[in-house]
Amino acid sequence: MWRFIAGRLLQAIPVILAVITVTFFLVRVAPGGPFDSEKAVIPEVKAALEAQYRLDLPLGQQYLAYLADLAKGELGPSFKYPGRSVNELIAAGLPATAELGAYALLVAVVLGGLAGVIASLKPNSAQDYIPMSVAMIGICMPTFLLGPLLVLLFGIHLEWLPVAGWGDMPGDKILPSLTLGAAYAAYIARLSRAGMLEVMSQDYIRTARAKGLPEWQVVTRHALRGGLIPVVAFLGPAFAGLLAGSFVVETIFQIPGLGRFYVQAAFNRDYTMILGTTVFLSTLIVLFNLLSDVLAAWLNPRLRAQFGEA
Amino acid sequence: MGNGSEPQGLDPHVVTGVPESKIIDTLFEGLTRKNPWTLEPEPGAAASWEFSEDLRVITFYMQPEGRWSNGDPVTAHDFVWSWRRALDPAMGNLYAYMLYPVENAEAYATGKLSDPEQVGVRALDDMTLQVTLNAPTPYFLQLMDHYSSYAVHRATIERFGKSTDRFTQWTRVGNIVTNGPFQLKEWQLNRRIAVERNPHYWDADVLRLNGVVFYPTENIVSEERMFRVHQLHYTGDVPLNKIPAYRKLPNTPFVEAPFLGTYFYLLNTERPPLDDVRVRRALSLAVDREAVTRNVLYGSNNPAYSITPPGTLGYQPPQLFSYDPAEARRMLAEAGYPEGAGWPGLELIYNTSESHRKIAVALQQMWKDVLNIEVTLSNQEWKVYLDSVSEMNFQIARRGWIGDYVDPNNFLDMYISGGGNNNTGFSDPVYDDLILQQAPRAATEEERFALFYEAETRLMEQMPIIPIYTYASKHLVHPSVRGLPPNLMDFINVKYIYLDDVPLTEIELE
To answer: Do B166 and A83 touch (CB under 8 A)?
Structure first.
């Protein structure tokens, strides 16, 4: 097991290095620079700015200097927000994004898992079709539509919940979490239904039923563990996806998170910020993928046995 | 209040945007501060000032009770040091040019002169500041409440780094020292910025607000929803499609006013077929601006027929033409494309945005209907678009210009030959002479405006741009808010704002 983890971590290093290198050069190829603005910039001013941020050096030197800083854990100063370092901006945005992602994941697992399991118990009946149709709509419904709809209903029409903010007013975390979690809930519903259906046709379930166990015990004690393995394997990439993809929800609800910085950095040609967030998020994605593989292996006795032999 | 995007920072010599300026104007104070009704300069850090006989030297007398938020006196030396900092080439200040009317300022800022002592700003003593200008500059006092001319606190800046460092901690809560009516209380990234009264402010007695909270509300649709549920007193903007519903409300919170800016298209006069003035005129005459403002913009903006917005300090720009399809067709035929025959095609670029797209589509259709010609539309991401415009890598490009100060010069000096913001290839020695030589030397305002009028007439005869509409500022203002009048600069003077007791009322939109 430990060898498996160590191996995967070693594999991650070239992946992340490749991400850094490609991003580093790609952002500089894009037309327009960080200091272009609508009003013409005086050449002397532009030169002074580029010197302050080492952009006057040859590209190779810039790259090596960046790697050297990165090795020290420094992501450099932001171009767009003078006076702030990229480390600081990520640290400022991460808590809200991580919290939002965690709640959204909770929404997704509880709603999606429940719907999937219920649907799988009576396949091809109304109990299956209704939750699965809702899930299909959930997958198709983009967050930029769902968010405003929820706001209109619960925020403005019923006046139950605040329409924007994060931690400013009681209840303002509910709508964003629901919005972000909805699409993932739909995926999880489909995954858990499929997983459960497969497990429910296995011999050991028949054995359990033959022993005379009541149906709810068959499901909770025997089927769930196996049926939810695909869901667990999905959780890691899902959480990383939630962190990297919360931009739309953060904008709709004015949440001070990482997603807004990440997307705007690209529009601003804020090179250090683009690189910093990309490095950070790609590292997270690699780690969460690893984590969910380990978790899935631990849940699945057959895989566990493989590692035991290896 | 809703305040656009998260500010880049709070250093007056580093930032460039509108959201930044709203916050910085509450924290800092220039030598003067505009009256929000008349836009006339009122005493700020300077209590009074006088001009020399030839109008080239201005002497400012500092407020005797002027204090920084840590209690230090605000002196003439603070301004001398700050202006040198604002102009220091190492600073990379994008707005350094606002101080260029000052003697030797441009030479120092562009590195042609290395001695800051020679810049025309001197402290005669602690309380007297003398500014020498290159030439009489009628709008100079207006520049004194632009943040690039603000004083910053030297000791604080030097405590956290070199004077020209951009990457420092001096603007953080607890570090920053300012001389305006308010001081920084709280700064949560992408969440809010709160300011509270500065107890040392010289005119603290007139303040009626205890503080202001600025919310970064990049998404104006969300901002409008926050206003509707009373989370905001004031919004920085209003979504276009909500305007008709708000207009119908009794006691509507919707406030709109002409704004010092023009929306127009740049024509690349160096590329055919736009190198022919008849083609440029045909394109412009075929645009029904009334229809654009009425149908696309919900009547919230006025049609523009020239580059300078009307009413800029009483200046009225020439209107040489109006919507005239017959004349447009005739021009195009004269240029060799009767009824659009033989038309080589044109491409119009704009930066990606729904509102720019709608206007481009409307004009595309008008050109098709009136002139029977094809114009293709192409949207570009913001920085790509900026690059295309500055490299003149386009045929027609969308453009907007917002005045930095209220004077026709701010719009007209763009089109001098080779000007950094010209971007059209327009070049006319007579125009250059009028703007650069004659207007600054005019004896009276009337004479100066007559010269501007003459220059602008020449410009619009050549039509290197197609003016479309004049900007308008649009806000939702809660009925309890007083002392926040709409004005041409969309300028807010926090000293005058207060809240009246008005019960919250339900906003029911149709």
So the answer is: yes
